[in-house]
Design a protein that fits this description.
Layout: H1 3-22, H2 28-31, H3 61-73, H4 77-86, H5 89-93, E1 95-99, E2 104-107, E3 115-116, H6 117-125, H7 135-154, E4 160-161, E5 180-183, E6 191-193, H8 198-215, H9 225-242, E7 257-260, H10 270-273, E8 299-300, H11 301-321, H12 325-345, E9 347-348, E10 351-352, E11 355-356, E12 362-363, H13 387-396, E13 404-406, E14 411-413, H14 425-433, H15 438-449, E15 461-462, E16 470-471, H16 476-492, H17 494-497
Antiparallel strand pairs: 1-2, 3-4, 4-6, 5-7, 8-11, 9-10, 11-12, 13-14, 15-16
Helix pairs in contact: 4-16, 6-8, 6-16, 7-8, 7-9, 8-11, 11-12, 14-15, 14-16
Length: 510
Amino acid sequence: MSINLRKIYVAIITLFSASATALSCPDYTTYSQSPQGNPSAGPLRLPFMRPAPECRTFNSSVVENVIGDMKARMKDPDLARLFENTFPNTLDTTIKYFDPEKNLAFIITGDITAQWLRDTANQLAVYKPLLSYDRNLQALFKAVINNEARYVSQFPYCGSFQPPPESGLSPSHNDWADGVTVNPPVNNEVVFECKYEIDSLCGFIKLSRGYFEATGDSSIINNNCTRRNAIDQIFRVIWEQSQGSFDEKFNFISYYNWTGGIGALSPAVDNGGNGEPKAYTGLVGTHHRPSDDLSVFAFLTPANAMLSVELTHLADMLDKVGQLKNVSMLARQYSSTISKAIWDTTVVNNIFAYETNGFGGRYVMDDANVPSLLSLPYLEFLSRTDPAYVATRNLLLSRGNPYFAAGKTFTGIGGPHVNAWHPWPMSQISAIFGTDDDVEITNSLYLLANNTANLGLIHESQSIYDYNDYTRPWFAWANSYFAEMILDLAQRKPHIIFSDDTAYIPGSGV
């Protein structure tokens, strides 16, 4: 038996063993709502929130090595505990199905048993530097990409999905999809929720190109009809959603619409489920935001910024493997058009609008979910020192942003998904990615550490009035995003989290 086959065999046996013990493992939604293991040695005394090794859904010695390296160097034991809990959270708790032989995997968001394209890309991004050191982790990424290519090929306007039939897992019922009319129609045995968010397709590209950048494995493209069809579908959506709402004869053009009916939990949407009309600008419209909330205006600036960046990465990947030259050229053309439209149509007096409509309408605000305006440097759209970003950032972190809120213990940006007085910790993570100021970084770090309701995990939102009032105890994306930020500081600003100024690169100690 070859080494690679043996590793696959061991992975399968490990998975079967995990399944056998899963019956005695606690549900993590419940587990995450009360303090568990021994507290940290710092003043916050944060609990150890990882499940027992036999209850973890994926195990990686490389991930454990990084945790050990970071714990040994981090000077604050509370921050170290927060990293120890958050960094492995996706692997520990959300890999509901993985079969390396079938090249399929199903990853949930946490306390919602569905796979979101956006969440998955962000949940896994933190492990990208480790792929070249861990074959099983590499196989997991590849299996996720393969499964998502099937989703995108079939339902490119949808963002969250049910388990693949090969998994044997039953589809989940989504109450919020009851009574909702979606066009094009969807199959609820495959689709969990079909809200169209352009950043979901960006997430699929991000995950795919990140895997390629880390591994050089071109098999996700070469002779892969499903993957190529997924790319074709992405470009179909880009073209359709960049068109104006009316043609030259004022025929109303609709390629996708979504609306709740009478008695549905989800809201009715104006104009036959199409939302506010839009005029052509070069930007790509979206029906919903990354928060899954309805857009006010169709052209979401940060989602278009992410799309512009990811299309360039897609073109780079295709060029490196010598595949699909026509697609590479189209990706670069769209990337350039979108970037120019952002600068030409969304920036006024050095301030980015969050949403525009092509008719002069602008909505100046920000939502915590990434892609956000605050996260533009994280998205690689611009630098932290860009004057328009600095000016916009200052406005967003002030009363000038209707979804900025400040209380005695927590401050940040939220959104309508919860309410205006529940900012999201995710916004403080984006704020750290967006600055080089040590004081600002430190302040944001401790706002995060001090607001976990003594549970040692990053939650969806946090009340500015009540320390114990938060939403989503198990939100894997937020946990991964926090850990990704800590690892960024370990390289960019090591003196803030370590006792010395020596940078740490994940995997360097493997």
